[in-house]
Amino acid sequence: MNIFRRLLPTKLGFKTSKKSCNAPGICSIHSSPDCVMEVNSPEQEVIIALGSNVGNRLHNFDEALHLMKQSGIQITRHACLYETAPAYVTDQPQFLNSAVRGVTKLGPHELLIALKKIEKDMGRTTGIRYGPRPIDLDILFYGKFKIHSEILDIPHERIWERPFVVAPLIDLLGSDIENDTVASWHSFSKHSSHLFELWEKLGGESLVGRSGMKRVLPVGNHLWDWSLKTSLMGILNLTPDSFSDGGKYISVEAAVSQIRLMLSEGVDMIDFGAQSTRPNASKISVEEELDRLIPVIEAVTKIPEVEGKLLSVDTFYAEVASEAVKKGVHLVNDVSGGRLDSSMYSVVAALRVPYIAMHMRGDPSSMQNPENLQYKDVCKDVAFELYERLKEAELAGIPAWRLIIDPGIGFSKKTEHNLDILTGLTTIRTEIARRSLALSHAPLLIGPSRKRFLGDVCARPAADERDPATVAAVTTGVLNGANVVRVHNVQYNADALLLCDAILERKQR
Fold it and tell me: For residue range 205-250, what is the model confidence (pLDDT) as tens digits?
């Protein structure tokens, strides 16, 4: 397809001159009233920035992404989500900012027209420059091209001075430069040899959480800044056969009583599981899982003290996830990372809730088989396999700003693998960052609670004797970068997290 067949409709009185290249693989396009340029190429990679500070900002983002897809933009990556102070015109509400990367067959001016139409359809009107707007869509990069016309400049002229633009732009890259197009984007930076150096000169990661910019994840009715404290997720097993507490909370009354106890002990999240995923567990049906789960969720959501807490459903069935969210659950926690139900990603994308993707090979009945326990380097292998699952989730429409990663301690792992993961969380982030910086910034959850490897190390065959070892494992994980810990004993681990967070705060001073 000729992507530059005519860059603007005739009524705009604009056509484009022939192409001139000023560097290998990098081309400049300049406007002219009487020339049309054509480039034969099926599609181009683009980066588009999003901003909103009027109305329901997150809904505005979701709607804009939907309309972009309808307009012929296939979104392949999402940046993190940032809440930022307004720039230039400061007397206005805070913005949400992000960016997406994708491919399109639209020419650059066709793309501009499509984005302006989306802005108009979503209620944007001509107003103060840099003033409030329901949605703002800017083309940051278009293929390898530099474009200058009367109505369009690519790269966007003010990228280089705006941390709230550069931060999500950097998220869409990997620390490895993956292709010539990405290499050209790095070369466009006016002030440095590459975009990473530009980001560092602006302040880099030191800006996040300060200077009016924080990285957030939308969950429930608020934006969660997971950097402020380590979050404590309490486990509620509604199963007769879980390895630690199977059969204890089958009745609604017993479940509600346990929830009240966890709330009193300082839990931040509650994870409902109605299907055992212990080694060698067999699957139950969707119907049986829902029969165990829904009555408890309905009862728990009526507890006044649960207001402000986050509820999660531990399931690998998309139908169970959907029904649980309809009943008031905020997150979906999938031990299979989407491998056991092919519709999970599309369902979660439509639900617009956060998704916890865990690393596991096989399923609970086969995960500890010898073929699933072979690793060259467990942290690097887990990072690569998790990235592949997360990439598929993004392509299915779950933005990076709704993803949480779990390396799957105890799932398809030997004792030594679990120990290596607890001390190697930074390596997992670094390996994911090679391919996607946005995904490497995602909240990281660990779940070592009472697991068999702790019993192996400490000679504690009974699961309920492993709480002290759990505290040690949790402490190790948090000091190595975990943001959420999933545990059975809330009280013990709440105390451990207070200490860990105090240590981390002092290290950051």
Answer: 999 987 689 999 999 889 999 999 999 999 999 988 666 666 678 8
> Cα-flanking dihedrals φ and ψ of residue 176, to 5°?
-85, 135
- Whether the full predicted model's pTM is greater than 0.85, yes or no, is yes
**336-341 contacts at long range (C-beta below 8 A, 24 or more positions apart):** 336/360, 336/363, 337/386, 337/389, 338/389, 338/392, 338/393, 339/363, 339/389, 340/316, 341/316, 341/317
| Identity of the amino acid at 212 | G
Q: What's the CA gap between 295 and 301, in Å, rounded?
A: 10
| Cβ 38 vs Cβ 5: under 8 Å | yes
Q: Where are the alpha helices (DSSP H) in 71-162?
A: 108-121
d(C-alpha 102, C-alpha 75), whole Å: 4
Which residues are the active-site residues? Answer: 451, 486
Which parts of 400-440 fold into alpha helices (H)? 415-423, 425-433, 437-440
Q: Return the DSSP state at 210.
A: B
DSSP bridge partners of 312: 271, 331
Cis-peptide into 279, omega within 30 deg:
no
Residue 68 identity: M
Amino acid at residue number 451: K
- Name the 3-class secondary structure at 146: strand
What proportion of the chain, given as a percentage, has pLDDT over 90?
78
Of 48, 44, 9, give the one whose Cα is nearest residue 145: 44
Assess contact for 296 and 272: CB atoms under 8 A. yes
* Identity of residue 329: V
Nearest by Cα to 47 from 245, 211, 182, 242: 182
Tell the residue number behind the tokens 């451990």, with chain if given: 496
Q: Are the beta carbons of 78 and 164 closer than 8 angstroms?
A: no
Which parts of 44-167 are beta strand (E)? 44-52, 73-78, 81-84, 95-104, 136-142, 145-148, 153-154
Q: How far apart are CA 25 and CA 155, in angstroms?
A: 15
Over the stretch 451-478, which tens digit does the pLDDT of each residue have? Answer: 999 999 999 999 999 999 999 999 999 9
- What is the spatial distance between Cα 414 and Cα 437, in angstroms, rounded to a whole number? 29
pLDDT attached to residue 125:
80
The secondary structure of residue 36, as a DSSP letter, is -
What residues have CB less than 8 Å from 446, skipping those under 6 apart? 406, 407, 409, 421, 422, 425, 473, 474, 477, 482, 484, 485, 486
Tokens found for residue 90? 């400061």
State the Cα–Cα distance between residues 211 and 84, nearest whole angstrom: 9
